[in-house]
Amino acid sequence: MIIDPITFFVVGACFVLFMVFSLIRVGLGPTTPDRVVGLDTMNTLVVATMIVLGAAFDEVVFIDVAIIYALLSFVGTLYVARYLEGGL
Amino acid sequence: MGGLIYVLFGISVVFNGLGVIALIRFPDVYTRLHGATKCTTFGSIFTALGIIAYGFARGGAAHETLAIHTIVALVALLVTNPTGSHAIARAAHRSGVKPKGAVVDRLEGRS
To answer: Which of residues 36-95 of B touch A (CB under 8 A)?
Structure first.
């Protein structure tokens, strides 16, 4: 092994902790765009966590899930932004 | 090679943490968007670079497949993340959210 495999789990646990903190902003944010920003940050962290866990478990499928999750969360963010503009 | 991967993971965790602290601590939606998006994009780039270095250093067909798929995920992240944050900022301005302490909006009424 090049690096200790426990490193992947430590990094993933840090990212999950950060996701909990951004969930605080989703619940607390005074305006709707604040909540959307928290959700967008959470999406990015989910993609990073999926990549790390894919390397941790030696599963390429996790990284494919991360690619699809990034694209779908982008579509969701655009949809919510369009809704806030009043275009829908 | 192992030291390089540890350094890349360290940078990624530190910058993602700074982005989340910015999300919690900053006063209004535009500064939160600035800090959170910039820092988490940078941190996620370094996470992906660490996994790419790990995959190519381990060698073998399975780990190189993992590294190449991670490159695709990195490209998807780099394309989608700034575009999404731009859309959120535009929507926030259009829906009438003012920056904290602003007294005049020179973009009022412009598209």
So the answer is: 36-37, 40-41, 43-44, 47-48, 51, 54-55, 57-58, 62-63, 65-66, 69-70, 72-73, 76-77, 80-81, 83-85, 87-88, 90-92, 94-95
